[in-house]
């Protein structure tokens, strides 16, 4: 299998601190998934990682777009 490179960027939308927490949590989830697949993960910048490994692009290409979460904010517990 050919090694493929993917850049993943998460940005907080509206929602203040809770939105930032969600964006960081989402990026960490992608990094942990990549590690579990034995792909290489590099932190490029705040909110940006580079993932390199066999079929990385093929497996992650459908993750593009807006991801939303609805929950009780940690700042209001």
Any chance you could write out the topology, listing elements then pairs?
Blueprint (H helix, E strand, L loop, with lengths): L2 E7 L6 H21 L3 E6 L2 E7 L1 H5 L17
Antiparallel strand pairs: 1-3, 2-3
Describe this structure in words.
This protein is an alpha+beta fold. The chain has a single domain (3-76), classed as Alpha-Beta Plaits. Helices cover 34% and strands 26% of the residues. The protein has helices at residues 16-36, 56-60, and strands spanning 3-9, 40-45, 48-54. Strands 1-3-2 form a 3-stranded antiparallel β-sheet. The mean pLDDT is 91.
Features:
77 residues, alpha+beta, Alpha-Beta Plaits, three-stranded antiparallel beta sheet
Mean pLDDT: 91
User: Shape from CA axes?
Assistant: elongated
Main beta sheet: 3 strands, antiparallel
Sheet with most strands: strand arrangement: 1-3-2
């Amino acid at each position: 299998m050919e090694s493929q490179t993917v850049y993943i960027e998460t940005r907080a939308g509206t929602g203040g601190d809770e939105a930032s927490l969600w964006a960081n949590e989402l990026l960490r989830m992608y990094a942990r998934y990549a590690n579990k697949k034995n792909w290489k993960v590099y932190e490029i910048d705040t909110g940006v990682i580079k993932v390199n490994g066999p079929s990385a692009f093929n497996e992650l290409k459908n993750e593009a777009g807006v991801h939303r979460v609805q929950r009780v904010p940690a700042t209001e517990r």
